């Protein structure tokens, strides 16, 4: 996806038993789509940050969903049942969706977990990349550049995102 592109549509099952679409994820100001999984150490180190962002920005008009597109046959940790258990154990405040066919990941051009796509109120891509500049799960430093929060603040203020693209760092999506 290129900046400014319209968010590809999807209809995916969530661990909550509901079917979710990009339209149901969208908030009044923005939508965050995070390609995620259950086992990648980069995802695990960012879970608390994503939960915090979801809670901090929901009242500001930002919707969010995480999508797991990994091949669950080769990576059983990423099965739908294990997704349900993880979402419950961690108390995800956002829908956790299963992209078993991997068509949504391909449509978005997702390559890693986590890989973020932030859309404006018109569902145009405004930011893509990492949560922040702390991308080393082994050393865990305090993030100095909160890319996702900065992008959301810009969108909420109706300003262009100052840094619209960063590199998604994490585990590669496990393709079939």
Essential attributes:
176 residues; 5-stranded mixed sheet; two-stranded antiparallel sheet; 5 helices; 21% strand
- Give the helix/strand class: alpha/beta
Give the CATH H-level superfamily. Glutaredoxin
> Looking at CATH, which topology would you report?
Glutaredoxin
Number of domains: 1
The CATH class name reads Alpha Beta
Query: Which outline best applies?
Result: globular
Spatial arrangement of strands, main beta sheet: 5-4-3-7-8
Biggest pleated-sheet summary: 5 strands, mixed
CATH architecture label: 3-Layer(aba) Sandwich
Per DSSP, the total helix count is 5
Mean pLDDT: 96
Sequence-ordered SSE layout with sheet pairings:
Elements: E1 11-13, E2 19-21, H1 22-25, E3 30-36, H2 41-57, E4 62-68, H3 80-90, E5 96-98, H4 103-108, E6 112-113, E7 115-119, E8 125-129, H5 147-156, E9 171-172
């Amino acid at each position: 996806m290129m900046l400014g592109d319209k968010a590809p549509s999807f209809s995916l099952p969530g661990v909550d038993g509901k079917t979710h679409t990009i339209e149901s994820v969208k908030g009044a100001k923005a939508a965050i789509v995070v390609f995620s999984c259950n086992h990648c150490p980069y995802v695990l180190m960012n879970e608390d940050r994503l939960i915090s962002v979801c809670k901090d920005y929901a009242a500001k008009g930002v919707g969010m969903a995480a999508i797991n597109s990994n091949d669950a046959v080769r990576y059983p940790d990423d099965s739908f049942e294990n997704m349900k258990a993880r979402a419950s154990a961690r108390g995800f405040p956002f829908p956790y969706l299963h992209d078993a066919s991997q068509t949504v990941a391909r449509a978005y051009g997702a390559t890693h977990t986590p890989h973020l796509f932030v859309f404006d109120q018109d569902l145009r891509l405004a930011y893509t990349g990492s949560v922040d500049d702390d991308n080393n799960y082994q050393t865990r430093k305090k993030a100095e550049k909160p890319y996702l929060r900065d992008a959301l603040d810009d969108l909420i203020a109706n300003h262009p995102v100052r840094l619209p693209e960063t590199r998604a760092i994490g585990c590669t999506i496990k393709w079939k």
